[in-house]
Amino acid sequence: MNLPKELKDNFCLMPWLHLYIGTDGKANACCNASITYGSLKGQSISEIWEGEKIQTFRNSLLAGKKDKRCAICYNKEVSGKSSIRTETLEKFKHYIPSAIENKKTKPVYLDIRFSNVCNLKCRTCWHGASSSWFEDAKVLKTNFGEKAIIKATENNSKLIQEVISYSDELEEVYFAGGEPLLMEEHYELLALILEKNYLNTKIRYNTNLSTLVFKGLAVIDYWKKFKNVHISVSIDDLEDRVEVIRKGLKWKKLIENIKQIKENCPHVKFEIAPTISVFNIFSIGKLHQYFVDECLVDDVNSIYLNLLERPNYYNIQVLPTGEKKKVELILNEHIIWLHSKNASSKIIQEFKSIINYLFLKQDEKGLLLLKQKNNQLNVLRKEHLVFDFHTY
Is residue 212 helix, strand or coil? Predict the structure, then answer.
């Protein structure tokens, strides 16, 4: 990636090209790191992007320093897995020279979480990222504020106009949630990008894909106008089990929506993006094989393994050693299947890295919390979700 030797291990391109705004209105380094550049509650986009805090972080990266707040990326990389840091370096490597020279830039890669609006309340999620979690969160005393819906600003339409006006061009726009296909702002931003004639902009999603129409707006009609649309479908398991893990999801409707998109928008790139946790680590291979065998994804390489770090009690590292060894056998069998399907070395490495990550740490405290937290939700939701292991 043409990085100087002293920068290779720690350097990140994000603060020179990536604008992330959370549902709290704060501009952070990314969706994972607690590195805050500023807040829209009192600052403009330009003030944040050209401010002292983001420049301090840039200077720190250029000095080759490792920031402990970027631990999620570094933890994944130790196991051999890709991270947001490495993925961004690879996708936007053409920006490396200007970043190293610390030239003034404007954001070309947007990730704006307009709100937490979502129709699901997934086990691995929380109220801050899903409005549907609010009532359960109140009972569990984990609610993020006193309203179900949280918005980045009081006027997100104004925010959209400001971002588009400030950016000279857009290479990629990433929509995530909440659930982006249920947000008015998502359609507003798409319309404005089309108005600007930015048809080459990559439009990328992490979506539960539970609906394709919102308030009379058919998202397929928008996608037909863009040259590069990439959909990562948040799906963790199969049929009845995923309907419990991702509470509110209808399995048959999901499959119908995927088939409808493939028929009407064949240029749209598809992949599944399971969140790897204690809920699905034993069955992730079956999920992958089903979507490949049923031709619901483009090919065997169409999978993104979203490795859960928090909350720690759902992290696969809480598994007892004996169960980890069972997972290792299951994943190694899946890797054999990947070879038989001529999967890319990158995808094979991603599955190998899950095995490596599994054994990096033994979290006994997390294991103790797992039973408690899972039972709380089972009682609250009148469900009976159990694991494929029984030694916790």
Answer: coil
For the record, the structure tokens of 83 come out as 């991270």
Region 131-155 average pLDDT: 96
pLDDT in tens, 149-180: 999 999 999 999 999 999 988 999 999 989 99
DSSP label of 268: S
Kind and range of the H or E run holding 95: none
The percent of residues in the chain predicted with pLDDT above 70, rounded, is: 98
| Alpha-carbon distances of 26 from 17, 44, 251, 348, rounded to whole Å | 17, 11, 35, 36
> How far, in Å, CA of 373 to CA of 78, rounded?
28
Q: Distance between CA 283 and CA 149 in Å, rounded?
A: 33
Contact 315, 366 (CB under 8 A): yes
Both tokens assigned to 178: 């909440």
Q: How far is CA 175 from the centre of its chain?
A: 9
Q: Using CA atoms, how far apart are residues 381 and 117, in angstroms rounded to an integer?
A: 20
Residue 339's region, left for phi above 0, alpha for psi from -120 to 50, else beta, is alpha
How many CA atoms does the CB half-sphere of 151 hold within 13 Å?
11
Cross-strand partners of 202: 172
**3-class state of residue 26 by DSSP:** strand
141 burial (CB, 10 Å; 0-12 / 13-18 / 19+) is exposed
Identify which of 41, 144, 81 has the alpha carbon closest to the alpha carbon of residue 133: 144
3-state secondary structure 299-314: CCCCECCEECCCCHHH
Burial 196-222 (b: 16+ CB within 10 A, else e): eebeebbbbbbbbbbbbebeeeebbeb
Q: What confidence category does residue 18 fall into, taking pLDDT thresholds of 50, 70 and 90?
A: very high
pLDDT given at position 261: 97
φ/ψ of 214, rounded to 5, equals -135, 120
Angle (CA) 17-19-24 rounded to 5° is 165
What phi and psi, each to the nearest 5 degrees, are found at residue 102?
55, 40
CA–CA separation, 388 vs 65, rounded Å? 42
